[in-house]
Amino acid sequence: MFRFLLIFFSCLGFSISHAQTEKINALRHELVTMNNLQQQLTYLFLLCDESESLNTDTLTSYAWSAKKLAAQLKDNTALLRADYFIAYSFYQKSLPDSSSNIVNRNLPGLQKTNAGDLYFKYLLLKGRIAMRRQDMKAALTCYYEVLSKAETNKDTLNQVMAMSGIGWVQKRMVDSKESLAWFLRAIQLAKNPVHRDKTIFLYINTAVVYNTLENYDSANYYAKKGIVLARQANDLTDLANALGFYAGNMIDTKHFTEAEASLKEAVEVRKQLGNPYDLITDMETLAIYYADTHQPKKGIDLSLKAIDEAKKYDMPSKFPSLYEGLAKNYYMAGDFKKYGETMQLLADVKDSIYQQNSSHDLAEMKTRFEVQKKENTIILQQLSLVKKDYFIYGGGLLVIILLVAASLLFLNYKKRQQLKASLAVSRAEETERKRIAADLHDNLGAYAASIASAVNHISSNDPSKNIEVLKELKNNSNAIVSDLSDTIWALKKESLHLTAISDRLKLFIQRVHPGYPGILIDVHEDISSDHELSPSQGFHLFQIIQEAVNNALKHSGCSEVIIDVKGNSSDWKITISDNGNGLSKEIKSDGGGNGLYNMKNRANEAGWTIGWEANHPNGTIVDIMNSPLMA
Q: CB of 235 within 8 A of CB of 53?
């Protein structure tokens, strides 16, 4: 009966994925000719090891067959190995709960028995599941544990796997430079030809980060390198990933013919593998392609289908990029209402991600790893000394005790300092909230007074005179609602990031644009490193930008207003430029009226630099920055 099942599963795999590699076909042939159960189990695991080139249904079939054989042979290690491949196939099918249950059930036992490579496989899979669920802290815990133990064991391949995982976490947390450093370090470590076929993904990861940094030539180089290596190794998963990303890079550089050809090949390869997560990624890339080639209707339909699939398979990590693609297609279609709604959804998703994963926690995790790494080095050194001289070992042990005692004293001191800092921060936050409340009172009070005055001027005798008064009432009412919305948005956050303010500006543009249909208003972003602001600072910054945009729209006679948002590892800068009439005499002489005075006052309170200069060939530029070095 079991022999029949093996033949059935072999035929099933071939029918689903008719273009599998010669190596897999050879293994299948050997499998169905084996009479010995132990040999059959060996070949089943050799097939499972080719998981990156197997259709997920085929992998599941082989893994379950291996588990039945392992149970029949009463081989506990083989049972754990078969369970790993079953869990991996569940992960590939986007069933993270089923995968996680198997991993969590087996990990404790593997940890006690120190099962080496199999334990690392389970830990790395646990990290990937955590990333799929957007739990970056849990993912880093797994990856740093693998890295620490693999370094101790001089296990190069698992060090590379852990470094790649850490690099992806940094990429998800919008720290592209840190991410790139991890990937390049991993490539350097994996130069041994023995590891080449198993580390092709590193070239694709590196290409992705270079693309994010807008270094398209380097992205192109690493993507092509990944395609060549994947073809040589007959690795379908890496080939599909490399082709899909290469298409995305071609779209960014406007090489649409090459992009389309690469996308079509990627989709064909992906169909063989049957992995919904990667299929959704390719749909996302194709939707962006439709936006860039002015086919927004196709892009909108495809984006909505991809979002439904991401919800179906519970993939929250895909939502930010999917909503960005959908918003881009709505913008290209001229549906600004839907564009605004989608940008709001995107802002909410990003807020959720930041709340779940703070950069402080991730940095703390990295620090813990570095401390653990140093402790491991000390322990290895001490063990070496023990073999040579017991007296020196005793001295080394005393050093460790002193280090521990010093660490405890330092931690106690650090806790006291953190408590003081926490109290100071609380007092500062309360002061900021009161300042915002007073600002809100002043603004709304002025609007309310205007409304009251307008109401007094409404005449029941001559309705024709009421039109302008009612119009003024409507404008002031809308202004109150907008001010309240912006203030509440700032107050309800514990902190605000530069990216969140940029997203809020896009909503503000959607709000004011109908009143100025002939003027182009847009936001350009170049944020390689995000910055965290207090609620008060975020509110002040948003109000300054809003005032600058309103001034340009109302007074400059311009046809376009561009907002540039830039952020690097240490500084940020925001520029509002128009092509209008240029600097007014008031700005040149006495610094302008109340609006400009308020902008300067807000910037001074926050400790920023603000300035006005002429745009070329005509217009005005307003610069706000947290450091004069950004100028």
A: yes
Please, what sign has the CA dihedral across residues 26, 32, 33, 34?
positive
- Residue 497's DSSP bridge partners are 532
- Phi/psi at 521 (nearest 5 deg)? -125, 125
Find the farthest-apart pair of alpha carbons in the chain and give their distance in angstroms, rounded: 108
**Closest C-alpha among 564, 546, 557, 539 to residue 625:** 564
Confirm if 61 and 9 have CB atoms less than 8 A apart: yes
Orientation angle between helical segments 256-273 and 276-292, nearest 10 degrees: 160
Tokens for 524?
A: 């350009």
Q: Measuring CA to CA, which residue among 217, 306, 231 is closest to residue 265?
A: 231
> Each residue of 270-301: pLDDT tens digit?
777 767 777 788 788 788 888 888 899 999 99
State the pLDDT confidence band at 102, using cuts at 50, 70 and 90: very high
Do 499 and 174 touch, CB atoms closer than 8 A?
A: yes
Which secondary structure element, helix H or strand E, spans residue 281, and what is its range? Answer: helix 276-292
Across the strands, what pairs with 577? 562, 621
Sheet containing strand 572-578, edge to edge, reads 520-527, 560-567, 572-578, 620-625, 609-614
> In the prediction, which pLDDT does 13 show?
33
Helices (H), 74-135: 76-92, 96-113, 117-132
pLDDT the model gives residue 54: 78
- Quick one: which of 344, 363, 337, 373 has its CA closest to 500? 344
- 3-class SS of residue 526: strand
For residue 74, count CB atoms less than 10 angstroms from its CB and return exposed for 0-12, middle for 13-18, buried for 19 or more: exposed
Contact 263/285 with Cβ under 8 angstroms? yes
Q: Give the separation between CA 76 and CA 65, rounded to whole angstroms.
A: 15
Q: Omega before 617 cis (within 30°)? A: yes
* 3-state class (DSSP) for residue 561: strand
Q: How far apart are CA 567 and CA 524, in angstroms?
A: 12
Kindly report the pTM of this predicted structure.
0.47
Q: Are 530 and 571 in contact (CB under 8 A)?
A: no
Under the banding of pLDDT at 50, 70 and 90, the label for residue 194 is: confident
Indicate if the pLDDT at residue 189 is higher than 60.
yes
Length of the chain: 631
The predicted pLDDT at position 384 comes to 52
Q: Provide the Cα torsion 365, 369, 371, 375; round to 10°.
A: 150
Distance, C-alpha 67 to centroid of its chain: 37
CATH of domain 494-630: 3.30.565.10
State the pairing for strand pair 520-527/609-614: unpaired
CA distance 321 to 311: 14
Q: At what angle do helices 390-457 and 359-388 cross, to 10 degrees?
A: 180
* Neighbouring-strand partners of residue 509: none
Tell me the three state secondary structure of residue 608.
Answer: coil
- Cβ within 8 Å of residue 23, ≥6 positions away: 50, 234
Show me where the domains of the chain are located: 1-115, 494-630
CA 416 to each of CA 150, 367, 410, 429: distance values in angstroms, whole numbers, following the listed order: 36, 20, 10, 20
pLDDT for 69 beyond 90: yes
pLDDT-derived band at 565 (thresholds 50, 70, 90) equals very high
Closest by alpha carbon to 570, among 496, 625, 607?
A: 625
Backbone angles phi, psi at 117, to 5 degrees: -60, -40
Q: How many whole angstroms separate alpha carbon 271 and alpha carbon 16?
A: 9
